Amino acid sequence: MAKSLAETAKKFLLLGQCVPSVKQNAAKIRVKKLELDENLLMYFRKDEYYYCHDPEKICQTGDIVLIQALPQKLTKLITHEVKEVVYPFGDITDPITGKKVAKERYREDMDRQAELFGKLQSTFDYNKAPPRGWQEGKKDFSSKPTYTKFHIFDDNDPYAI
């Protein structure tokens, strides 16, 4: 019973966050799920990672995307496809009203307040800002896979075995 439910759930749409990947035409998506611990009767977060077919590179690192299982696997790893980008990273949208948000206030309210009290030269204008990803490869390396840097100890370390 549990296996059939798990298999059926994987056929529906899943919501996840794009993380850095080294695959060429695939995006690595992290889907957060809750797992019940039967002894404590508490739910704990469990992350599952899916490689999704994304040849057009519509999702970037940090985007919240909608994925769907493919009818048949493309490769051993690629089992899903990216349907759409729900929320691009950095462009926060209130899900109820659909308005853009900056920190805890709506952008419309910030613009209206700037008009009423006089716009300062130092305020940031979201309408004139370049699109996300224009510095990719120059100053922005968030699309590159992360790595672990290990410390190399000195040869004369007295605590080394």
Summarize, please.
With 161 residues, the chain is mainly β. The chain has helices spanning 2-9, 107-117; strands at 14-19, 26-37, 42-53, 64-69, 78-87, 101-102, 105-106.
Structure, explained:
The chain has helices at 2-9, 107-117, and strands at residues 14-19, 26-37, 42-53, 64-69, 78-87, 101-102, 105-106. A hairpin with a 4-residue loop joins strand 2 (26-37) and strand 3. The chain has 161 residues and is mainly beta. It starts with a helix and ends in a 44-residue tail after the last helix. Strands 1-2-3-5-4 form a 5-stranded mixed β-barrel.
Layout: helices, strands, pairs:
Elements: H1 2-9, E1 14-19, E2 26-37, E3 42-53, E4 64-69, E5 78-87, E6 101-102, E7 105-106, H2 107-117
Parallel strand pairs: 3-5
Antiparallel strand pairs: 1-2, 1-4, 2-3, 4-5, 6-7
Question: Features of this protein?
Answer:
mainly beta, 161 residues, 7 strands, extended, single chain
Cα Rg: 22 Å
Lateral arrangement of strands in the main beta sheet: 1-2-3-5-4
Which regions contain 5 or more consecutive residues with pLDDT less than 50? none
| SSE string, helices as H and strands as E | HEEEEEEEH
* DSSP strand tally: 7
Largest sheet: 5 strands, mixed, barrel
Hey, roughly how much beta strand do the residues contain?
25-35%
Main structural class: mainly beta
Oligomeric grouping of the chains: single chain
